[in-house]
């Protein structure tokens, strides 16, 4: 069972410091000749050494054994996990939607339960993302996962997660998200059958978007991101270390736990965020802003203003506007949109899009409200209206997403999706 409460540090990209044993954290220097308590100093860098100071991500870890103490790696088969555009298959430029994928009865921990839905980019080129499902019914005990290809953004949809990382623990429930840095070992414990979404980001690390004309307040605030405090395992038993490296999984056996960091400080840390703290901003006159106004985190690309990936949420919010079509309008985008629903109802798709489901609208693929949503929005009284029980999200990327074989032929694809627009008749009159 998952026990709480846990302690956290507040902030995103902060210079954190934490020690589980008094005096374990060096003062005045990062790597003294002898670290207190017989610990080893180890640096984890999440950016190039010469990255600008404001975007330089690294943390110093003071641990009982360095992470190099591990046996040789051997290939590990996991047929459902894919990486980069090369692992997708050809698909027509149609809007796609998936029903919720059931959690299997066969035992599956977080690594075994990953199912890749769409991919783009190239992990070796450090660009693009993949969107996965996790379908989990068993906790990881003496097994840890290290992703050398990218950072991982976890969006729980069903079931609570206890994520143990090298720097401490995160307790994450549906409505919250967790961001786990590239290269950091972690394991996931569950209370029961659990399902959620994962954005695996090969590109620039996620950061808070600039606010521009919005000003100093709005969207996600840095102080609402919570990082763990130092904690370590005392157990001396061996561990399976599973590493994702170059799109493949590799397995090695370590003589002891990788979760042996007694103290740490720096700016590279796992964090969790409660989407209830997101400050939505919308129109109070007419029309409404682009969906970019709901961006929580962004991974920039080499083209300013065009993201490698944006993480966007559609949480509970007030709809207030004059003479305005309230749901998102019909549109075609340069950006490609992978969408999921955590709970409630999405206002543009009242039927057919269920919690745990997914949709994909690739670059320049038309999409928008279904027939029912259009009819309702066109005739609704334009009074202030609150969308009170909903949480949807998008992984939005400049790169076209390629569905996987599992996504197209695994049984969850809604082959009647396009029918939701079939009754949108031509009402044009010349009068």
What would you say this structure looks like, in words?
The chain has a domain at 278-420: Jelly Rolls. The protein is globular and about 85 Å long. It is built from 2 helices and 28 strands. The termini are far apart. It has 431 residues and is mainly β. The mean pLDDT is 94. Helices cover 3% and strands 35% of the residues. The longest helix is centred in the C-terminal third of the chain and has 9 residues, at 371-379. The strands form 6 sheets. The protein has a 9-stranded antiparallel β-sheet. A 6-stranded antiparallel β-sheet has the order 6-25-24-27-22-21, with no helix packed on it.
CATH topology of the domain at 278-420: Jelly Rolls
Tally the helices: 2
Mean pLDDT across every amino acid position: 94
Tell me the overall shape.
globular
Order of helices and strands: EEEEEEEEEEEEEEEEEEEEEEEEEHEEEH
* Helicity level: under 10%
List low-confidence stretches: none
Summarize the helices and strands and which ones pair or pack.
Blueprint: E1 8-10, E2 16-19, E3 40-45, E4 58-63, E5 74-76, E6 96-98, E7 114-119, E8 129-136, E9 143-147, E10 151-158, E11 161-165, E12 168-172, E13 176-180, E14 186-190, E15 194-201, E16 225-228, E17 239-245, E18 248-254, E19 261-266, E20 271-274, E21 295-300, E22 307-314, E23 317-319, E24 336-344, E25 358-361, H1 371-379, E26 385-387, E27 390-397, E28 402-403, H2 405-409
Parallel strand pairs: 9-17
Antiparallel strand pairs: 1-16, 2-19, 3-4, 4-19, 5-18, 6-25, 7-8, 7-28, 8-15, 10-13, 10-15, 11-12, 11-14, 13-20, 16-20, 17-18, 21-22, 22-27, 23-26, 24-25, 24-27
């Amino acid at each position: 069972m998952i026990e709480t409460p846990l302690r956290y540090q507040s902030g995103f990209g902060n210079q954190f410091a934490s020690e589980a044993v008094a005096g374990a954290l060096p003062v005045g220097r990062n790597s003294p000749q002898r670290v207190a308590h017989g610990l080893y100093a180890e640096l984890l860098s999440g950016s190039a050494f010469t990255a600008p100071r404001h975007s330089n991500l690294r943390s110093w870890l003071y641990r009982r054994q360095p992470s190099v103490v591990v046996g040789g790696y051997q290939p590990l088969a996991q047929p459902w996990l894919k990486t980069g555009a090369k692992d997708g298959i050809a698909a027509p430029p149609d809007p796609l939607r998936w029903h919720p994928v059931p959690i299997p009865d066969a035992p599956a921990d977080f690594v075994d339960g990953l199912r890749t839905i769409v991919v783009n980019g190239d992990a070796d080129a450090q660009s693009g993302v993949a969107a996965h499902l996790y379908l989990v019914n068993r906790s990881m005990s003496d097994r840890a996962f290290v992703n050398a290809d990218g950072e991982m953004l976890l969006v729980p949809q069903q079931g609570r997660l206890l994520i143990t990382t090298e720097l401490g623990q995160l307790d994450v429930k549906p409505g919250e998200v967790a961001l786990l840095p590239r290269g950091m070992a972690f394991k996931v414990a569950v209370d029961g059958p659990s399902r959620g979404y994962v954005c695996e980001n090969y590109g620039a690390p996620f950061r808070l978007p600039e606010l521009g004309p919005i000003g100093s307040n709005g969207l996600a605030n840095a102080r609402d991101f919570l990082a763990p405090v130092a904690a370590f395992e005392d157990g001396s038993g061996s561990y399976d270390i599973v590493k994702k490296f170059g799109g493949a999984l590799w397995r090695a056996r370590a003589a002891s736990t990788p979760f042996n960091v007694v103290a740490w400080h720096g700016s590279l840390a796992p964090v969790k965020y409660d989407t209830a703290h997101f400050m939505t901003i919308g129109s109070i006159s007419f029309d409404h802003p682009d969906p970019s106004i709901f961006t929580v985190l962004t991974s920039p690309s080499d083209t300013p203003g065009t993201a490698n990936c944006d993480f966007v949420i559609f949480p509970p919010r007030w709809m207030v506007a004059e003479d305005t079509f309230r749901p998102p309008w019909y549109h075609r985008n340069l950006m490609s949109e992978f969408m999921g629903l955590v709970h409630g109802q999405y206002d543009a798709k009242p039927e057919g899009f269920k919690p745990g489901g997914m949709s994909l609208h690739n670059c320049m693929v038309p999409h928008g409200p279904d027939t029912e949503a259009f009819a309702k929005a066109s005739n609704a009284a334009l009074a202030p209206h609150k969308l009170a029980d909903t949480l949807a999200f998008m992984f939005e990327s400049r790169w076209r997403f390629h569905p996987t074989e599992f996504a197209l032929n695994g049984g969850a694809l809604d082959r009647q999706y396009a029918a939701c627009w079939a009754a949108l008749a031509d009402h044009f009159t010349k009068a």
